[in-house]
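Sample A.
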Amino acid sequence: MQDVSEAMIRAIFKRAAEPTALLVTITAEGLETPIRASSDPDGTESRGDHFPYFPFTFGWGGAAADEPVRGATLEIGNTDGEIALAVRTITGAPLATVEVVRTASPDVVELAMVDAKVSDVEVDDPRVTAQIIPKNFEDEPACKARYIMARTPGLV
């Protein structure tokens, strides 16, 4: 669970919603500078970095019985070819960070998904599509352990 600021909580419950922006940063080997995008049409300056406006959307797949956690699809508009050119220079496995900021206070990150693995990047003019892989909870130490009543009586 991630805490949000008191200002963000007030903004959520206002009659007129306070504007927020989604910031996407993609890093990988081979990239001279990270790919940055903002959902704010004016772009966003946050923590000393410029996030230019690129139209992007997320598609969230629902869960299924055989696959309880599915990834998301990130689609970025390749308006001037800059994103496609940057994607073609990637040599390693890319990572994506998605952050929510209030436009009134863009240096304060309210919510963040940090260093999510990215796979299957497709360049199809006029857009670039990537799959964001969810965290594998089987890699978590608690999920690897077997709880046997004789060894862990307090969990009954």
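Sample B.
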Amino acid sequence: MSTHHDEAVTLKPIGEVAAFQRNLIPANIPGTYALKPLFEKVAGEDDIRNGVIAFRDFLYIFCDRLISDGPVFAKPPKKPGGMADYPFLHNMTNLLAEIGYHGKTAEGGGSLLVTDMPSCTASLDEKGRKKSPKIPFSGQVDCLRFLGLCGFAFPGIDLDAKALAVSDVQSLEVSYPKNPLLLTGLKALSIADMELRTERRYWNDHHLLRCDYRLLKADGTDMLDVLTDFLHPLSEELQAFALTLHRRYTERGMTCLNTTLGDTSFAYLPLGKSRRALSPRDLYAQRVWEFSYSLRHGYCLFVRAKRTEQYADVIERFPEPLRESIKKGYGCDRKLRNERCQHGCQGIRIPLDGAIPDVGGDIEKWLDHECRVL
């Protein structure tokens, strides 16, 4: 039996990771929305909303700089745990979060003063032994230098000094001269990232870099709006196809679950009559189909087809590529075809690309039969 399933992770080039991350930044942030009471202490609502937009615009610069200059700063680890496992990105995300969360607005409002940076400070464990900071000294310098390239300023800090560490500075002053309101947006988003996320906050996630302004909103979020933002990098034709499927099946009683359990996904499932409270992970396991965006496969439709024998005659009338994909089924690549793992257990994979317009109607018929919404 092949052991390809166990082969080492292949790290993606940092430019590809940056381009992937750029697509997750919301393209259309509304100018007005009510904020949760938690943010009253941060600033006025208009300043927060405008600050969030300023932070979003900074993230575009951040990703573009990663594409052009990333190899200088983002060094690959010896044993990556994932395709985007760059310590530089983890360090940068957590440094920004702590600047926003712990920073105090300086007199005049043009900068933040940060005196507490847990990730950049050595500590003692329960036995009194010294623990190195989560972000090593060299990583702290790289982060500050890269932020400098992206428009941040750190008055009193010599970014060319080789021995500089954030923990050496009693009070780190942080500014963004191009648009000081960015600091207000960063502070609000950092509080939301630290205190309001329903899923667990992992050290190596990059959620803050997605500018999830919806965590700040007082009102609930419309799933159609979230999906529309998710699809924005695709062509208008592909967006229309996806939104049509979303409306078709949610109107017929299916639940849409937006998850970021690794990949970004919009999963569709019938909840049935179960009264047992299920976690997002348990709900996701019940999905019938989903839209997914991943570094591995890009934008795709995945279908966990289990009833194909009940409508085999319908499948025979589909175009050959779609028909053959359905007939192959899905499951563990190693067990089914003695191939390396390509995450075939996720479902039958249909790329959201230029071939979709030719088979969109057939995909809808397929889902109708699989979901029993005829």
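B remarks: Residues 45-73 form the longest helix (29 residues). The chain has two domains: 4-216, 223-371.
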